[in-house]
Write a structure and sequence with these properties.
Layout: E1 2-4, H1 7-20, E2 26-31, H2 37-47, E3 62-65, E4 72-76, H3 90-93, E5 98-102, E6 115-123, E7 126-137, H4 139-155
Parallel strand pairs: 2-5, 2-6, 4-5
Antiparallel strand pairs: 1-7, 3-4, 6-7
């Protein structure tokens, strides 16, 4: 578990994730509206050395950012209700980039087997603070979690 005190902490966690990510890693971001999923993704892009403006893919499903250390595939599947398996997302999940999937639970069985899930929760006593919990699925997810926790503890 990690506590983030403000937007800067959220973006710094994202930068760390971007720096330690490897091709084929998948990150699922789970949290209420306004929990910081897109802000975290902006930090991830920075850590991947992507300078392009990062926008939420809410209405486009996927935004691709190829010009970085690794390509970033930013997905927002909030509006996916049926047919997730027909979207062809496996190409992204098993590809040469780093996938960030907001609202990933919406994909059900179409989720990759190996991923790290981050739960971003607002702290009730302070609207700027967030609690981040991890749940790894598979060996790559576990490796990514370890790298993030080690890096965060070293930086803090």
């Amino acid at each position: 578990m990690i506590y983030l005190n403000n937007l800067t902490d959220t973006q710094n966690l994202g930068k760390l994730i971007g720096r330690v990510a490897t091709a084929g890693d998948n990150l699922v971001l789970t949290g209420d509206l306004g929990a910081g999923k897109t802000s975290l993704t902006k930090g991830i892009a920075s850590g991947l050395e992507i300078t392009q403006l990062i926008k939420s893919p809410t209405y486009t499903l996927i935004r691709e950012y190829p010009a970085g250390r690794l390509p970033l595939y930013h997905m927002d599947v909030y509006r996916v209700e049926k047919g997730a398996g027909d979207l062809g997302l496996d190409e992204y999940f098993e590809g040469d980039g780093f996938c960030v999937i907001e609202w990933g639970r919406q994909l059900g069985d179409a989720l990759p087997l190996d991923y790290l899930e981050l739960f971003l929760k607002k702290v009730p006593q302070d609207e700027n603070k967030r609690q981040v919990d991890f749940l790894s699925h598979g060996s790559k997810g576990k490796q990514l979690q370890k790298k993030i926790e080690l890096g965060w503890n070293k930086d803090v």
